[in-house]
Amino acid sequence: MRKAFELLGQQVPAGSRRVVELPMPKLNSHSQLGMPVHVIHGRQPGPALFVSAAIHGDELNGIEIIRRVLASKTVSRLRGTLIAVPVVNVYGLIQESRYLPDRRDLNRSFPGSDHGSLAARLADLFMQEIVQRSSHGIDLHTGSLHRNNLPQIRANLDNPETLRLAHCFGVPVLLNSLLRDGSLRQAACERGVPILLYEAGEALRFDELAIRAGYSGVLNVMRELGMLTAPRNRPRPKRPPFIARSSKWVRAPDSGMLRTRVALGASVAVGDLLGFVDDPSSGSREEIRAEYAGVVIGRLEMPLVHEGDAIFHIARYKDEIAEVSEQVESFQANYAQIIEPGANP
Fold first, then answer.
1. Does the pLDDT at position 236 exceed 60?
2. Residue 340 has what pLDDT?
3. Which of 269, 267, 165, 176 is nearest to 218 (CA)?
4. I need a labelling partner for 289 at 20 to 30 A (CA). Which of 7, 193, 295, 328 fits?
């Protein structure tokens, strides 16, 4: 029998599951808050995978992804240990805000400090109690407010273990993303914990396609790590996902009203029309055109724009653009299924 998993002095015996609340600094009303951590400790040895969501408190898709993973019968027979944290930034969730009460971005505050700011203390708590007990990680995100992201994996794909897990997640586009100072991804990588960042959907919204793809992706990674023995939730793509080595935002050339002409996942060539910015006073219109070839992986959904606002996020591709487009279309068709009323996915 495996040794019990211990978190904050609480024992989780092999073959059992438990919810442990990490104590967080109180609200200014002196109300106590806790960060819920779900631990499933398998009977057989294996990796320790953490899955986290809502580091930005207004990013909700990951919360539902983790709920579905925990509700799956598959995980009751896992090898190793699953550490699931559905809401990291509890403060932000309460306020429907990306940030903490001190207006800091938690995902720019890692690895943190136990005697620093509120953000630093929360980051330190997560590092000490979650990351340092894990062998691998998946961090679930959405686009920021009014920005919608195509399901994608961002990771350090020069790391062979991270690349292996990114390939099996099941999204058509992988973005080789540089580590950002203060991010959970950077802090985990510095401690030798390979981590995937899943981006999909929009803040303060549920996106069923993004949730389904994320749920399947987490289970696919667990299978790749040998934590699950059940069949894959969905078949592997016929081709491996394509890696974009760079991406860039197309910005508004002027202030006004945005009218988009391309959807998420659309492939674009140099010079293609992406949309217009209309002047509500004069009625004049300015075109927005692609400056490079690639796939639209992020898009602003708010019609009101100021000059310089980021509008279209394009992952840059050249020779393989047709193949990437085919993969994206296949992926979207695979997950764009209607859920019957009353269904409980």
1. no
2. 39
3. 165
4. 328
